[in-house]
Each structure stands twice: as C-alpha cells, then as structure tokens.
Give the backbone structure.
Amino acid sequence: MALDNMDYEFDEDNGVFNQPLEMEEQPRRRPSRGDSPLNGLFHNLSGNPMILGIGALVIGLVIGLILAWGIWPVKYVNATPENLHPNFQLDYMQMVIDSFTLRQDNSMARQRIDALGEAGPTVLQLLIQNPGDELSRAAIDLFLRQYDPMAAGAPSADPNAGGGLDPATGGEAEPEAPGGLLGRSSTLLLAACGVTGLVAVAGAAYYFLRIRNQPQGVRTAAARANEYSQQAEQTDYEAIGEAPPIAQWMTTYLIGDDLFDDSFSIDAPTGEFLGECGVGIADTIGVGEPKRVSAFEVWLFDKNDIQTVTKVLMSAHAINDANTYARLEAKGEPVQARLGDGVVLDTKTLRMAVRVMDMDYGTGHLPENSFFQRITLELAIWALDDEMPY
C-alpha cells in the first residue's frame, strides 16, 4: 500500500497496545549493527561476487607467499652445481681448477665444468677476471695453459660464440649474467606477480564495465529499502496528546535483502547508554533466492534488565500454520503483522512500541499472504519513568 494512504492513528480497539506485559525467559544481548560503519561495508561486499572474488584472490596470494617463502619454504636436496648461488658457483669452479692442477685430467675437468650447465663458461670467465690471491692466480694460469676443452670434447671456446672462454688471452670474451636457482626463482616470482596483476586488472575492468552497462537506477534491495524508511512519516505522539519518545526510528525490509537485520543503540537525552533494539528475519518459507520472509523478530535489550524481550511479527499464513506457530513461539510471542497495528515490548526501565507503517505481501506459487514483499516498521522508545502513551 502507498505510504500516503496509511492511517497513522492507533486503533484503540484492536487490543494490541493493551496487552499484558510479557517477557522472554532467555537472557541474551545482541550487538548493535545498525550504527556500525562496517555493517554497510560487509553488506556491500557480500552482495558483490566480483569484489569478493578479487579480494579472495589478493588474500590468497598474500597468504600463499607468506606460507611458501616464510613458514614452509621449498627445500632443495641433491641439487647439482647448476643450482648453486653464483657466489658458490665461483667457489666450485675454483675447486675444479685446484683439482686439475693435481690431476691434469681434461675429461674430468670438462665433466665438472659441464655440471654448471650453461653458466659454466661464464663462471670460469668471471673467476679469470677476479682470481683472488697470487696462489689462485697461478693455479688459474696453469689451468689455462694446460686445459684443452677441444681435446676433452668441449664446445668451442670462441669468445664470439656467446660468452665462451678464450684461453690464449685469459678474458677477452663478454661474460653473461650468472644463472642458478636465484635467477630462476626471481623470474618465476615476477611471472606469478605479473599473471596475478593481469587477472586483477581484468577482473576490475570486467566489474567496472558491468557497472557501467547496468541500467540506470539499479540498486540493492537494502538501498531501496532505506528510501522507503526516509519517506515514511513518523508518528507525532505529541499531536495525539502523548509524551514524545526518547528515540524513534524507521526500518524497511524489501524482498531481496536476505541479510536484513537492523539494530539501534538507545541513548538517553544526556547521552547515557540505555540499551539496544532491533528487527531481524525470524523465518522464511519456500526455497531458493531471494528468501521469502514469513516472520520478523523484534527485540528490546535493557542494560538494567537481565532479559531481552522478543516478539515475532508473522504473516497471515504463518500465524495460521500450526507447525510454524509452534516453532516461532519459542522465540517470542507470535503476533500477526497488520497495517497500522503494532506490539509493545516492556523491560525493567524501557518500553518499545513497534508499528507496521507500510506492508505488502508477495505473490507467486507460494500460499497467499505467506511472505512479505515489503514492510516498514516504526520503533519508538520511552523510559518507564516518563508519562507513557499506553
């Protein structure tokens, strides 16, 4: 029904506001979510699979790097000299040369140098350019004079053939960058980061293109429900001769808002915290998405009381279904939601009046009047030491 056609006068004959005070036996306290800035963030994230996917990708990458490089790093066993750090490859080449000065075995020297793979000639070239002390220089000079790579079946040592060794000059060739595990690991890491970056950019581009191509005005159910709450006119209790409440809110549920759970902090005019109140989904009917909500739970928490008072606003079908009624009765007193009617919840020092300001049932294959398409509720709070309206 339209908001401008609603009757804002209380129906004194319906008996809703003259019910005896009843309290729920189970003590509990709910956290306030209505005023939390994280509430909107979590709601928006949970309603956007693309953002969730990108966030999960980034978090997974960070956790994976921490686990792979910090907690459980890869351990190499039985590695060949080719996988050594460049500094250790230089030490290895020095030992090959020292061994050659004793054995002068070209074939063995060739095999040991080949164990360094493509980095072998480069490492030898670097060692020739930086021999170290005089004894090492003498060993290298002897090696260059007596080692014959061609006789041992080695590839050409032409300095113009890609970084080879020139024994005659002792270092005319242009050295290549040393290889090894570090170089390959850095390359793999950069490649992984590049792929991840491309995926993230592609995901972001897809998301923004999707948003841009959406029809104008398409918003979430929660955003549209907020507009209904802002348009609803609050009850003017002073105009009907009653004491004004210390707090008053509007909250709206629209079908599609499957995470609907609105709560508010109750504060005295002096700023003192008095308690909390709210509305949440109590029951649904049928299967699939969006949820078909058939009942709402309204609750009031008083910091000076040990109990949280709860009542359940039910659809016409739900309240007449024996199984549903019995199941929800454990949560609080069941009350049928009717336009203009409401319920009163009393605690030790607080009273809350909940009125149905706007309501519309959904239609479809489910029973008639079984789930809500839309409902707007007004929550008004009084301190029990004030002049009460009921």
